[in-house]
Design brief:
The complex is a heterodimer of chains A (250) and B (639).
Chain A lengths: L2 E11 L6 E12 L4 H14 L22 E2 L2 E2 L20 E5 L8 E3 L2 E2 L2 H8 L21 H11 L6 H5 L6 H12 L8 H14 L10 H5 L7 H15 L3
Parallel strand pairs in A: 1-5
Antiparallel strand pairs in A: 1-2, 3-4, 3-5, 6-7
Helix pairs in contact in A: 2-6, 3-5, 5-6, 5-8, 6-8
Chain B lengths: L15 H8 L5 H4 L3 E5 L3 H13 L2 E5 L17 E2 L11 H11 L6 H21 L24 E2 L5 H18 L3 E4 L2 E9 L2 E9 L5 E5 L2 E4 L20 H8 L4 E2 L4 E7 L22 E5 L16 E2 L1 H5 L9 H13 L11 E4 L1 H27 L8 E10 L2 E2 L12 E3 L17 H23 L11 H20 L5 H16 L5 H21 L11 H25 L23 H4 L1 E6 L8 E6 L14
Parallel strand pairs in B: 1-2, 1-9, 2-5, 9-17
Antiparallel strand pairs in B: 3-4, 6-7, 7-8, 10-16, 10-18, 11-15, 12-13, 12-14, 14-15, 18-19
Helix pairs in contact in B: 3-6, 3-11, 4-5, 5-11, 13-14, 13-15, 14-15
The chains are: A alpha+beta (250), B alpha+beta (639).
């Protein structure tokens, strides 16, 4: 195991209404086995032991599945490896390196403090239609509706989205199309919820626009940073489902 | 002494839940609108309960500490969910799932609750499939299953290695549908700091808005705690870093009994500890034991690379000791066996605290692609964390804290000893006894939330004199709010020298070493001495910079740790009181000739429920005797 000495430039911002800026820190003796967030824990412990306020950042499961963490590291959402920030390890960096750490930047993700943003807009997109309307108890036997193996697998590929928001942070338009498309593609692949397929696509797309996310113009940055490898084809699927909703009356 | 009434209905266990549902009072739809419910937590139990209660017509307020309800830690469950569908046609039934769960829990759970769990398990799969959960399928389009520890049938449904995520997103989508419909109000980034009682009934909560620091009051007619378990008492665990015991513990201090805190599950297959920097440990799903073989070198201190060790010099100790179940023995048995192998000097890796989980034979049998299809995401995760390729070299694994079987004591209706306060999912103690079987946590969370609490809460609301509406102007809210504010102010005022994280790590080491996988009288007594000392130093020397009116993770951690420091002592007391071994609770003084947990049914067939008094004296013990009428108590054997 080796250790790194790092120069860190970290975005500090008091709250949504205050301006922020990059602040320089030095952190020595970082184990290459540490995760990126454990490196920040180490910095925070150093700050708190010295009576200074720690840097606020979001994280929870720290195993790449909850979608809570997310930082822009040297200009790239989730950093240099295709994974979540919590699963990025310090062995990817070299001794003496300078790391610039910023929050997700997008109008619909206002910064709350330091590196923490508000992603409530994602929840509101789901509330607009990202579900199958089936009340508890109203379900038929699980094997009553067969689902072809490849369709289940296709649905799973899209359902793997963790809602971290890296796609939005990476997109020059701050578009939420990959996130919204993933949910629409997941449900459109399955027979369950078929009757509300059109409504779902129309309502979710409208909500996405209403929240202030930009449109997709095929840059592909979202796909490049997605830690769950959601393909950009879900956006085509979303557009197709949206168009379909105009020509069908559900 | 409070008499613990489990409220188990009479009559035969099969059909009991049906009869009970018939006997319960119904609330007509117009009346349901008059009742308000608070649901704390949005994991499988919380999201499913909030969604279902809202569908029924209740007004629901849903609270979670993450920025979105979709992030609750149920999301990290990997392997699967059990259900007694018998789709595999291999002899499964409600009775067999019931039997396996009671036996797996080493005869320390309540039979009636477990039977109900097995009954409703089938409905859960139906519900999730209807929500669009992309379970694994056969080519014909029907659902497929796999095997898990402690069972000889294939009853575990799964969605790749992300079953918890998919089930949670299903429950979350149901919840968000109700949010969209205006029947659930969502309160993310809130931490519950206290429970408010009026006339002895739970009527509200005090929460801290984690963004603004504001202390908020919320009133309701009943409160449902779905706040998960306390596995992070060990500091290093597979739990998310925000998992904590605070909501349950503050309810405990308001009068809810805390049951069986010493039943903590140590999961056998986690990536081993690599250094002091670590904030958490990562689980490698139990499903891997379907195809992976666990072994250590026969020679002590063997430093050869694993692939250089010939077959004859490997000890596949689980297959050797437990030929019937092999690598699929329950978690407590597998964890202790790994500890034994390492204690005897056969452990591997830099620390010697690891064993191999080897896929060489599975790759020969299924091909690399076949293994990747089943476990690809887990192999990738392992490679990212350890920088080793598990397709080429065996995984190194070691046990780690994973789940809490203990929790708030609840009756058959999932109500705690405080009227109107319910506890669901991992937050309660009821279904897993002294050891939980794999793929049963998802089952229990969703059973409680979708199919149990929505009925029993209605029965409580309609059958109880609530004395009218309570508003947040009530004195009880003012008192609880002030107490919460004082506690926050106190933490900020200490201005000591050590971070909460540092204290947490210190506590974790004591709990792991003295109340971990193996316990003995002397060690537990030491823990009972040492933990109050850590607690004392914490309240004099913790450093919490910043203020209380903003996001302040240091403050949040300190506030949670204060509760863990109290629970740690109770956990050790409970373990000391339980002078037997059972399931995950392994007292070194009580071992069978084969080295297995030796129960003392004559003296310890009870749930230990602890009552809080005040800081000046320890909790007192109440017992709920456990009767086993349908599953005979025998020495658990997986040979």
């Amino acid at each position: 195991m080796s250790e790194l000495n790092l120069k860190l430039r970290i975005w500090r911002q008091k709250d949504s209404n205050s301006p922020g800026g990059l602040v320089d820190y030095t952190l020595n003796g970082v184990s290459t086995h540490s995760s990126f967030l454990e490196m920040l824990d180490q910095l925070n412990r150093q700050l708190i032991d010295a009576g200074e306020e720690g840097i606020e950042f979001d994280s929870d499961c720290r195993e790449g599945i909850c979608g809570m963490c997310g930082l822009v590291i040297n200009g790239v959402a989730h950093g240099p490896v295709n994974t979540t920030t919590c699963q990025l390890h310090m062995r990817e960096f070299v001794d003496g390196e300078t790391l610039t750490i910023e929050p997700w930047r997008a109008g619909p993700f206002p910064v709350l403090k330091d590196l923490v943003v508000d992603r409530g807009s994602f929840d509101r997109i789901i509330a607009a239609g990202g579900y199958v309307s089936v009340a508890t108890g109203a379900a038929p036997d699980a094997n009553a509706i067969p689902v072809p193996k490849d369709k289940a697998s296709e649905a799973m590929d899209s359902a793997a989205c963790i809602g971290c928001g890296a796609c939005v942070a990476a997109c020059p338009n701050a578009s939420a199309s990959l996130f919204t498309g993933a949910k629409i593609a997941h449900l459109a692949a399955l027979p369950q919820g078929e009757p509300e397929r059109g409504r779902r696509a129309a309502n979710m797309v409208n909500k996405m626009d209403e929240e202030g996310f930009g449109n997709c113009s095929n840059h592909g940055e979202c796909e490049a940073v997605c830690p769950k490898e959601i393909p950009i084809s879900v956006i085509a699927k979303m557009k197709r489902e949206w168009l379909r909703s105009i020509f069908t009356s559900t | 002494m409070t008499v613990l009434d489990s409220a188990v209905p009479g009559g035969d266990i099969s059909g009991m839940w049906d009869r009970h549902r018939f006997d319960m009072k119904l609330v007509n739809p117009a009346n349901k609108r008059r009742f308000e419910l608070i649901v704390v937590g949005t994991g499988l139990a919380g999201a499913s309960a909030a969604a279902t209660c809202a569908e029924l017509g209740y007004k629901v307020k849903s609270f979670c500490l993450q920025d979105s309800p979709r992030r609750a830690h149920s999301i990290a469950a990997q392997g699967g969910i059990n259900a007694a569908t018998n789709y595999a046609n291999d002899g499964d039934s409600v009775h067999r799932l019931f039997y396996d769960t009671v036996k797996g829990g080493d005869y320390r759970s309540r039979e009636a609750n477990v039977h109900r769990l097995a009954e409703v398990s089938v409905n859960i799969i139906d519900q999730a499939a209807a929500q669009g959960v992309p379970f694994a399928r056969e080519y014909g389009g029907s659902l497929t299953t796999r095997s898990f520890g402690g069972a000889q049938v294939s009853r575990t449904f799964y969605a790749r290695g992300q079953t918890g995520q998919q089930l949670l997103l299903g429950a979350y989508s149901a919840l968000m549908r109700q949010v969209g419909a205006g029947s659930v109000d969502l309160y993310p980034r809130r931490e519950m700091l206290d429970l408010v009682l009026v006339n002895g009934q739970a009527r509200g909560i005090i929460v801290r808005n984690l963004v603004t620091g504001e202390i908020e009051r919320h009133a309701a007619d009943a409160v449902l705690l779905c706040t998960g378990g306390y596995g992070r008492i060990f500091y290093l665990s597979t739990n998310a870093v925000n998992c904590n015991v605070t909501a349950a513990w503050r309810a405990h201090k308001r009068g809810a009994f805390f049951a069986n805190p010493c039943y903590t599950q140590i999961h056998p297959t986690c990536i081993p500890v690599s250094g002091e920097h670590q904030s958490k440990l990562t689980l490698m799903s139990e499903s891997l034991r379907n195809d992976g073989r666990v072994w250590v070198p026969k020679k002590q201190g063997d430093t050869r690379k694993p692939n250089d060790i010939p077959e004859g010099e490997r000890d596949y100790y689980l297959e050797r000791r437990y030929p019937a179940f092999g690598n699929l023995v329950p978690r407590d048995v597998a964890s202790r066996a790994a500890k034994k192998a390492c204690d005897e000097g056969n452990g591997v890796g830099a620390t010697g605290l690891a064993v191999y989980l080897d896929f060489r034979d599975a790759i020969k049998r299924l091909g690399k692609a076949g293994v990747a299809e089943k476990y690809g995401n887990l192999f990738d995760m392992y490679a990212r964390i350890t920088a080793e390729n598990p397709y080429e070299t065996p995984m190194r694994i070691y046990p780690a804290s994973h789940y809490a079987m203990g929790g708030l004591w609840v009756d058959y209706n999932l109500m705690t000893t405080i009227p109107g306060l319910f506890a669901l999912g991992e937050a309660n103690f009821s279904d897993h006894g002294a050891n939980r079987l794999g793929a049963s946590a998802l089952m229990q969370g969703l059973a409680d939330g979708y199919f149990v609490a929505p009925y029993t809460v209605g029965n409580y609301l309609w059958g109880t004199d609530l004395g009218g509406k309570v508003t947040t102007d009530h004195d009880a809210f003012a008192e609880a709010e002030n107490a919460a504010k004082e506690k926050t102010a106190k933490l900020l005022a200490i201005k000591g020298k050590r971070s909460a994280l540092d204290f947490h790590r210190q506590l974790g080491k004591v709990v792991w070493n003295k109340s971990g996988m193996a316990r003995n009288e002397a060690g537990l007594k030491e823990a009972i001495e040492e933990i109050p000392k850590i607690r004392e130093e914490f309240w004099e020397n913790v450093s919490v910079p910043g203020s209380g009116d903003t996001l302040n993770q240091g403050l949040v951690e300190a506030s949670r740790l204060a509760d863990f420091l109290e629970l740690g002592e109770l956990l050790a007391r409970d373990a000391l009181n339980r002078d037997e071994s059972c399931g995950a609770h392994f007292r070194e003084e009580h071992v069978t000739e084969d080295g297995e947990a030796k129960r003392d049914d004559a003296n310890f067939s009870y749930a230990a429920a602890w009552e809080w008094h005040d800081e000046s004296k320890p909790q007192t013990l109440h017992k709920e005797p456990l009767e086993f009428k349908y599953v005979k108590q025998t020495q658990r054997s997986y040979k």
